[in-house]
Amino acid sequence: MPRPPQEVWDFVVDPMNDPRWCKKVKAVQPRGAGVWHVLHKPVPMRPPIGLTLEQVELDEPRRLRIKQEDEVSVFEVEYRLEPVAAGTRFVQVSRFHWKKLPRILHGTFRRGVRRDVRGQLQALRVELGS
């Protein structure tokens, strides 16, 4: 991204910006220090559901770890920011497990998660002007 790490950090560390680059996020409300309630729509043709987003570790402006949990899944997400000549290298690593999803659907949903992450990263590039 053609922005310095601090600018990218300032944008991604604030979950209130998530609806701007995560198309499935519909609303975000603060719940306390480092905790938010997020209304998201993870599955087409199904109603939105709530999840809890918690910032687990902040190493400004290099690394942010968050945990997202709803009734179906738990996601542990890590954002890594590194200065490069052109601006910032931004890497997202996501680990997740399903709490209620039938095993036969795990592969389908895993592919959907990968597609969603690619879309989010593309939207973030656009949002930050790359």
Structural commentary:
Helix content is 26%, strand content 43%. The protein has a single domain, classed as START domain (Alpha-D-Glucose-1,6-Bisphosphate, Chain A, domain 4), CATH 3.30.530. β4 and β5 form a beta hairpin. The radius of gyration is 15 Å and the shape is globular. The mean pLDDT is 93. The chain is of the alpha+beta class.
Can you tag this structure with a few keywords?
3 helices; 43% strand; 130 residues; Alpha-D-Glucose-1,6-Bisphosphate, Chain A, domain 4; 6-stranded antiparallel beta sheet; alpha+beta; 26% helix
Brief write-up:
The protein has 130 residues and is α+β, with helices and mostly antiparallel strands. It contains three helices and six strands; from the N terminus they run ααββββββα. The protein has a six-stranded antiparallel β-sheet with strand order 1-2-3-4-5-6, covered by helices on one side.
- Strand content range: 35-45%
| Helix-and-strand structural type | alpha+beta
Largest sheet: 6 strands, antiparallel
CATH class: Alpha Beta
Strand arrangement in the largest pleated sheet: 1-2-3-4-5-6
> What do the pLDDT scores average to?
93
Low-confidence stretches: none
Q: Architecture, according to CATH?
A: 2-Layer Sandwich
Overall shape: globular
Report the helical percentage: 25-40%
